[in-house]
Specification:
The structure holds two protein chains of two kinds.
Chain A (H helix, E strand, L loop, with lengths): L12 E5 L3 H14 L4 E5 L2 H8 L16 E4 L8 H10 L8 E5 L4 H9 L4 E4 L4 H18 L4 H4 L4
Parallel strand pairs in A: 1-2, 1-3, 3-4, 4-5
Chain B lengths: L8 H5 L9 H13 L4 E4 L5 E4 L1 H6 L13 H10 L3 E2 L5 H13 L2 E8 L4 E8 L5 E8 L8 H11 L2 E6 L5 E4 L2 H6 L3 H4 L4 H7 L5 H11 L4 E9 L6 E12 L5 E10 L1 H23 L3 E5 L5 E4 L1 H6 L12 H10 L10 H14 L1 E8 L5 E8 L5 E7 L1 H30 L3 E5 L5 E4 L1 H7 L12 H10 L5 H10 L10 E6 L5 E8 L5 E7 L1 H53 L5 H32 L5 E4 H11 L1 H7 L2 E4 L4 E4 L1 H17 L8 E9 L11 E8 L31 H11 L3 E6 L5 E8 L9
Helix pairs in contact in B: 4-5, 13-14, 19-20, 20-24, 21-23, 23-24
Classes of the chains: A alpha/beta, B alpha+beta.
């Protein structure tokens, strides 16, 4: 994988929404090992996710910064779950173009069909092992950071 | 009455002059003879008349023209006889003539003849010494001859309507005695001078008999009893006459005409005709009746019978009128015509004869060989004959026997009904259209504690309910509601069931069934136990359903939620080993390995448990599934395992069934994986998969066709005692280190088949392979079994 050339390295933020502290730790370690993401931010539920994206409350300081290049979204979370948040994001004209990748323990067909229907970019079931997770996240970051072109608001500071 | 005669000169003059000698004596003798009152006639030796006295001339006036000297005796006699002047009614003319001639040839003969007027003459013939013959007649009295011949003849003619007639050579009537006009009313002038044929034809009579008659006349034959009719010219009335006649010839044999008698038979003919008409009417009447009818005379001979009688008693053509009854009867018996005679012909004949002899109007019923029943009636007629009637009563008999059978059947039915009624476990009431009780059984009374004195036929349904309320069986408003809800015969034709709750807690199922002719039958069954059991069962089912659902939810949710911490255990185990492995001792690393291994087993258990619970939670609808195709796909999925094991899979033809395709895949995969897994070491596995379809006749307990699929391997097998156990969840026969697995695979198979209405069985011997057979309905008739 290292064989793939890296054209213009751009600072890219990845936002992870997951209520499970273990998973957050594991994901953080996996990103560390892959060394691909510049910045990985974590929120613990849907409510925080929306605040983060709308730069509200404790996320006001982010105002003017670009949106994350990709959001990793867990579905089952307290207070506001992933599905609700997803619906809100896709209904918001400012946020609707942010790529959303579902990363969840569920592999229920309903969830897969339902979230793609709401406009998610990918659906990943959390691998059981750390190696699996690390592999998945490496591929994911390569793809979203190095391969695809993102909408400008995800890579440029907002006015 | 003695004839007297005076001698006539004419007679003396007739004496032949040539008589030799004795002239004087002769003359004196003539005078004497002439003076005799008795008729005397003298003939010469040749039989020719010489002399006759006046008395003779008077007696024989009818042949006065023939009394001429020289006339032959024979001619005179014949003429006298033929002109009916004298006769012996008892003897024919020719014979009399011969007798008379014979008398003349004897020396001293006598004969007696009767004259037309009834007087009798005794004639004596004397032979004289000179060879002459003197016939001397005296009038005599004969016993019974008080009337003269003529008188008597007239009487005869009167008595038999006779008249006399004569014709000339041309057959024209010349003479009719006076009786003709008196009897027929036809004046003589009408008939004199005409022939009989003319008269007959003028009267409208024309027939072959007339031509025969004419032929007889032409041939100069005598005729008898020729009947014809002629018309009264004045009134046109028809008179029927019967005539007889014979031709008259003179001595030379020349035909002179006919002479004969006639009789007016008009009354007789009309009587005969009206008798014939009456008989024809009687015959028609007899024929027109539907019954057989026969009349026998006093000698028991058949007089008349109708066709129906002939048909019923099978009279052959030969058994016509005149046949005796016994002959007719025996002929029928011989032909086997009477079924009743089969028991003994003689006894039968005797019985029939006795009945016929009695003829007292009593009836017999006998069966004919053709199965018909005949009622025989016999009656005595006033003249000693017997009338027999035959009535076909087959239909009557049939109806009668049907009625008898029916009434027997009804009696049996009634006793059965009664027995059934009082032995019923249900209470039963029958109400008429006015809702009045017709009948009820003991059980009904017991059920409600009714007194038979109160609840008895005639009581109204409403009164029974009032009574029941008074007894405290149920509340008035419940009874009212039941009555209003009760179906009426007008709007409901079908049975209605309602459950009645009594105050004591019992539940009575009341079933009303309308009857065809109004009214209804109500049955009462104490269903307390059943209702309670049903309620308990429903309750239990509800609980079970809830418990099942909870269990499913538990299995599913628990599996999910168990997976999360398990994943962490595994993940951090990995991290521990990866980051800190080098810091650990060998024992520490071994502990981590064992922990990781246990976590892996737990993952398998959770996954299998999820699969098991998803048989019902993630069930999909039944669609047509080609089992052969599914099996091929499963084989393809397991290709690596198959190759590693060096296995051979023989896949036979499998049918198409209605099923959940995912589950069919799961089923076949589990069975094939098992067959590959439990192989004998060093024996390459051989697995045979085959299918069979059973028709509905072999499928037990249902109408649908079934398919049976067999998966047979040559693996390690198992003891037959475990054949049932292996389908239980978490059941394992081997150690984990020998053969991995959770013991849920076959339980999942069974659960899939149960959902599809199928079965699965296994048979095996240790070391001899195992055979699994599952059955599935080809078509699913109802929804999936949950």
């Amino acid at each position: 994988m290292t064989a793939i050339p890296m054209p213009t390295p751009m600072p890219t933020t990845i936002l992870v929404a997951d209520d499970d502290a273990d998973d957050r730790l594991m994901i953080e370690e996996a990103f560390d090992e892959s060394g691909l993401a510049d910045e990985v931010h974590f929120v613990e539920n849907g409510e925080q996710l929306m605040q983060y994206l709308r730069r509200e409350d404790k996320f006001r300081h982010l105002s003017g910064r670009p949106f994350p290049g990709v959001v990793l979204l867990d579905l089952n979370m307290p207070r506001k779950d992933g599905r609700e948040a997803l619906r809100e994001i896709k209904a918001d004209p400012e946020l609707c173009r942010i790529p959303i990748v579902v990363l969840t323990t569920s592999h229920a067909e309903d969830d897969i069909v339902g979230t793609y229907g709401l406009g998610v970019s990918s659906f990943i079931t959390k691998p059981a092992t750390f190696e699996g997770l690390a592999d998945a996240l490496t591929v994911l970051c390569r793809y979203w950071i190095e391969v695809v072109s993102l909408p400008p608001e995800c890579s440029r500071p907002r006015a | 009455m003695r004839g007297v005669g005076v001698g006539g000169a004419a007679a003396a003059e007739a004496l032949p002059a040539s008589v030799p000698g004795h002239a004087h004596d002769l003359n004196a003798s003539f005078q004497i003879v002439e003076s005799l009152a008795d008729p005397c006639a003298l003939f010469d030796g040749g039989g020719r008349l010489l002399f006759w006295n006046r008395a003779c001339g008077e007696i024989f006036d009818a042949i006065a023209d023939r009394l001429v000297a020289g006339s032959r005796l024979e001619d005179l006699v014949r003429a006298a006889l033929e002109r009916d002047h004298c006769a012996r009614p008892d003897q024919p003319t020719d014979r009399l003539v011969r007798q008379y001639l014979a008398l003349h040839r004897t020396p001293e003969g006598t004969c007696e003849i009767r004259l037309r007027d009834g007087r009798w003459l005794r004639i004596r013939a004397h032979l004289t010494r000179s060879g002459l013959r003197l016939d001397h007649a005296i009038l005599i009295e004969r016993p019974g001859s008080q009337h003269g011949w003529c008188r008597r003849s007239q009487d005869h003619a009167d008595a038999s309507s006779d008249w006399l007639w004569e014709t000339d050579r041309e057959l024209r009537f010349t003479y009719f005695s006076g009786q003709f006009a008196a009897l027929t009313g036809i004046p003589k002038e009408h008939v004199i001078g005409r022939t009989r044929a003319e008269l007959a034809r003028a009267g409208g009579f024309e027939s072959p008999k007339l031509r025969q008659h004419e032929a007889d006349l032409e041939a100069r034959r005598p005729f008898r009893d020729f009947c014809y009719h002629l018309a009264d010219p004045a009134s046109g009335a028809i008179r029927h006459v019967r005539v007889s006649g014979k031709p008259i010839f003179d001595r030379a044999g020349r035909f002179l005409g006919y002479r004969g008698t006639g009789t007016d038979i008009t009354a007789e003919v009309e009587a005969t005709r009206s008798a014939a008409r009456a008989e024809a009417r009687l015959r028609d009447a007899i024929e027109s009746i539907n019954d057989g009818f026969a009349l026998f005379d006093e000698d028991d001979r058949l007089v008349i019978c109708n066709r129906r009688f002939k048909e019923i008693d099978a009279l052959g053509a030969e058994l016509g009128p005149g046949t005796s009854w016994e002959e007719i009867l025996r002929a029928g018996v011989e032909r086997g015509h009477y079924a009743a005679a089969r028991g003994g012909a003689e006894a039968y004949v005797a019985e029939r004869l006795e009945h016929h002899r009695r003829a007292d109007g009593s009836v017999l019923e006998h069966q004919l060989a053709d199965g018909r029943w005949i009622q025989i009636g016999e009656y005595r007629t006033s003249d000693g004959g017997t009338v027999g009637t035959r009535t076909d009563i087959t239909e009557l008999k049939r109806r009668e026997s049907a009625r008898i059978e029916l009434s027997d059947e009804l009696r049996i039915q009634y006793s059965r009904f009664n027995a059934a009624l009082h032995n019923m476990i249900q209470g039963l009431c029958m109400f008429d259209a006015d809702q009045r009780l017709i009948v009820c059984n003991e059980r009904y009374l017991q059920m409600y504690g009714f007194s038979p004195e109160v609840v008895k036929p005639g009581i109204r349904l409403r009164e029974i309910m009032e009574y029941s309320v008074a007894l405290g069986n149920y509340r008035r408003e419940d009874a009212e509601r039941a009555i209003t809800e009760r179906p009426t015969t007008a709007d409901k034709r079908e049975q209605a069931v309602l459950h009645q709750r009594l105050n004591d807690g019992r539940v009575i199922a009341v079933m009303h069934q309308p009857m065809a002719h109004g009214g209804s039958v109500a049955t009462y069954e104490d269903v307390t136990q059943t209702v309670r059991a049903e309620e308990a069962l429903r309750d239990y089912a509800r609980k079970l359903e809830r418990s099942n659902r909870e269990l499913q939810d538990f299995a599913s949710i628990a599996s999910h939620d168990l997976q999360e911490p398990l994943r962490k255990i595994e993940a951090f185990g990995d991290r521990l080993k990866a980051k800190c492995g080098d810091d650990l001792s060998d024992v520490g690393r071994m502990y981590i390995d064992r922990m990781q291994d246990a976590a892996g087993r737990l993952r398998s258990l959770i996954n299998d448990l999820l699969t098991y619970s998803r048989v019902t939670t993630k069930a999909r609808p039944f669609v047509p599934v080609d089992l052969g195709r599914i099996a091929a796909e499963v084989m393809s999925d397991l290709q690596v395992t198959i190759e590693q094991a060096g296995a051979r899979i023989e896949l036979g033809a499998l049918p198409e069934v209605e099923a959940d395709p995912t589950q069919m895949r799961q089923l076949l995969q589990n069975l094939l994986s098992n067959a590959l897994k439990f192989r004998r070491p060093s024996v390459p596995p051989v697995v045979r998969i085959s299918g069979r379809v059973h028709g509905p006749e072999r499928a037990s307990g249902g109408g649908a066709s079934l398919c049976a699929v067999t998966v047979a391997d040559n693996g390690i097998g198992f003891k037959p005692a475990y054949a049932g156990r292996i389908f239980g969840i978490f059941q394992r026969l081997h150690g984990r280190n020998e053969y991995p697995g959770t013991g849920i695979g076959l339980a999942t198979c069974r659960k899939i088949l149960e959902r599809h209405g199928g079965t699965i069985t296994a048979s095996s011997q240790p070391g001899k392979g195992a055979t699994f057979v599952f059955t599935l309905p080809i078509k699913q008739t109802s929804g999936p079994v949950l």
